[in-house]
Design goal:
By secondary structure, the chain is an all-beta fold. It has strands spanning about 1-5, 10-15, 20-25, 35-40, 45-50, 60, 70, 80-85, 90-100, 115, 120-125. Strands 2, 4, 5, 6, 9, 10 and 11 form a seven-stranded mixed beta sheet that branches. A four-stranded antiparallel beta sheet has the order 1-3-8-7, with no helix packed on it. β5 and β6 form a beta hairpin.
Length: about 130
């Protein structure tokens, strides 16, 4: 019912900026939350930012707060992650995700709350 197509990602120097985009298609009517997750080699997948699609309330992980910002367009057809002041520890595969209903059943930061996922895009921050 929902398809997520990511764009962006790449290689950036420490301190640089990058914007990731997630195009939303299908029928996102019932999607309550969208999020960006990341997973580095040897580490668990972690939420970095979450947005409530109706009221646009956001949550950002402590590790990225003040540096990353999640947003959505007016038509709710895309979600973005603006990343600034990038650090080597930000290096990971970044995934766009959407809940399968209006609620995040296991909490907004838990991967199992999200039914739809993008393909992932690699972000590498050089040291």
């Amino acid at each position: 019912r929902v398809q997520l197509v990511e764009s962006g990602g790449g290689l950036v120097e420490t301190g640089g900026s990058l914007r990731l985009s997630c195009a939303v298609s299908g029928d996102p009517t019932g999607v309550g939350f969208m999020a960006w997750f990341r997973q580095a080699p040897g580490k668990e997948r972690e939420a970095v930012a979450v947005i409530h699609t109706d009221d646009q309330a956001t949550t950002h992980a402590d590790s990225v707060k003040g540096r990353f910002f999640i947003s959505q367009d007016n038509a709710k057809s895309a979600v973005y992650l603006q990343m600034s002041s990038l650090k080597p520890e930000d290096t990971a595969i970044y995934y766009c995700a959407a809940t399968g209903g209006r609620w995040a059943t296991r909490g907004t930061l838990h991967p199992d709350s999200y039914a739809y996922w993008g393909q992932g895009t690699q972000v590498t921050v050089s040291s």
